[in-house]
Amino acid sequence: MKHFVLFITALLSLFLLQTVSSAQQIADSGISGAISPEPETISDITLEYNIENAIIKGFVASGMNDFPVQLGAFRRRINAQAFLNEVREYIDRNAIMVDEDGFFKVRISKSPIPGKISGKGKEVIEETQQVAQNRININSPGTFQEIVTGAGTAETKNDTGLLSDNIITEQAVAVTPAEILFLNEDNPWLKRIDYFGKSISFVNSLIATIAFSITTMLVLLIVILLNRRRMEKEEKLRQYLLEKYQGLILDYLFSNANPDDFRPIASDTFRRQVLIDQMIDVSINLKGEEEKKLLSLYKHLGLDRDSVRRARDKRWHKKIKGFRELAFMNIRDANEEIYKALNSSNDILRMEAQIALVRLGDENSFEFLSHLTRPFSLWEQISLHEMIIQHDIPVPPFKQWLKSENTTVAMFALRMIREFKQNDAEDDVRETIMHPEPEVKKLAIQVAGDMEMRSTLGTMKRMYKDQDYGICLEIVKAMGKMPDLSMMGFLTLVLDKEDDVQLQIEATKAIENNGEEGVKALVKLMKSEYKNYNIIVRHVLDRRIY
């Protein structure tokens, strides 16, 4: 039905165009198909047209018109190209395709008879037909190449010298390697791809992105490899210099080496840093005169200025390196900068500042605790305790920080009191048991029980009824660690009145820890009226369990 309608439309168009005598120009403005209008006359040459009857898949089309007839219009070029190939097989290969008004239109061109044309006009027509024949052969199925047609103008003059109408012919243009490599609208690799109306620039952008990514990856790979090679060379040189400088330092400390022998080393930045690192390593095992002699060499070479400059650097990793160097060499010129880092938001920088101040402290190595406002983490507390043990740092009376507004500092002081057996802090610990913070209060009760601070028993007994479960459990456990007969009545009441099994078990253990008197009290409780705690008492008194 579609072909029949197109055929009828063609016949009506041919009939209407018979009265028109001037040539019309056909534009092909958007695709590789050529613009191919042809003149009616060339100078004094008369063109005769004979459109024979043609059969298009069962439909007959005939006409004697001198002008093109439109057979169909398509929104998609691929459909128009398929219809054009079919039309060319039946209408003497004179059909063309035009991009016009947003449609791809298929039209039948004029059909001159070469035998009745002479002169230049005949040459032009023959050339046009040859170009059309070449285009059809190239566009045949199974080939990837397409002729990109352009507009060529042939100008002729008649006997009077007047310029005739322009004849625009289709010319075959060879596809260059650049057109194949770069994806543009005329690239032959994309002719059979349907992009659903997408711009070809999107594909170009994807290719450019992929190319850029690959190039970037290669550049980064080269940079990484070169940097790795540089670092390996520096590490080898560093190991060589460390061994060399260690020998020089030992010769200086235990022989009569001259400090000026180190001047050439200290003139180079890299070697200067290696020398500092080696001097710090040696200083760890030095005491007395040798330590002072090494410090004198450090200052003589101006290395202390490098350490102070690093401690005042804005970069946190540089600050840490400067803090360590100053701490090991016992140089206090940048203490104010270290104090500023005490409350830094950087956890590593804060911990390094604490360690440096402990090493650089004069009479009280832990004076920084009075200036610490940030939370004092458990890891930092463990690190400082380990440093005290390893470096035999004098231990201050930690009871002075039990009233610190920083609860983590107060808890650290409680742990150090227990660790170093500072029994003289009993009164301060008793006051800390009433601390408003539950965590500090619980730890103070544990410390009092571990150190058997019996003066705290009365305080614990009075505060028991107003505390939450966790605090109550710690109070009963602490009473079990420091048995006192005066507390047996209180513990019996806990066993009888409390419903929590864990509290009853801990109270029973605390009563038993009072020795023979405690055991008698428990046996008496078992023989009395049945209570739900009898099984708990039997469990605690069973020697096979404990």
Explain the overall architecture.
By secondary structure, the chain is mostly helical. Among the domains are: 179 residues, no CATH class; 64 residues, no CATH class. The protein has 22 helices and 9 strands. Strands 5-7-6 form a 3-stranded antiparallel β-sheet. A hairpin with a 2-residue loop joins strand 1 and strand 2. Helix 12 packs parallel to helix 13, helix 18 packs parallel to helix 20 and helix 20 packs across helix 22. The longest helix is centred in the middle third of the chain and has 55 residues. About 19% of the residues have low confidence.
Q: List how many beta strands DSSP finds.
A: 9
Sheet/helix structural class: mainly alpha
Mean pLDDT over all positions: 74
Main β-sheet: number of strands, strand sense, barrel status?
A: 3 strands, antiparallel
Q: How helical, in percent, are the residues?
A: 40-55%
Gyration radius, in Å = 51 Å
**Neighbour order of strands in the largest sheet:** 5-7-6
> What is the terminal separation in angstroms?
104 Å
- Overall, the morphology is flat
Taken as a percent bin, the fraction of beta residues is 5-15%
Low-pLDDT stretches: 15-67, 111-125, 138-173
Please give the count of helices.
22
Record the SSE blueprint.
Layout: H1 2-16, E1 41-42, E2 45-46, E3 54-56, E4 59-61, E5 69-74, H2 77-88, E6 95-100, E7 103-108, H3 119-138, E8 150-154, E9 167-171, H4 177-181, H5 200-254, H6 263-266, H7 269-283, H8 289-300, H9 303-311, H10 316-328, H11 335-340, H12 347-360, H13 378-391, H14 407-419, H15 426-432, H16 438-450, H17 457-463, H18 469-481, H19 488-497, H20 501-512, H21 516-527, H22 534-541
Antiparallel strand pairs: 1-2, 3-4, 5-7, 6-7, 8-9
Helix pairs in contact: 5-7, 9-10, 10-12, 12-13, 14-16, 15-16, 16-18, 18-20, 19-20, 20-21, 20-22, 21-22
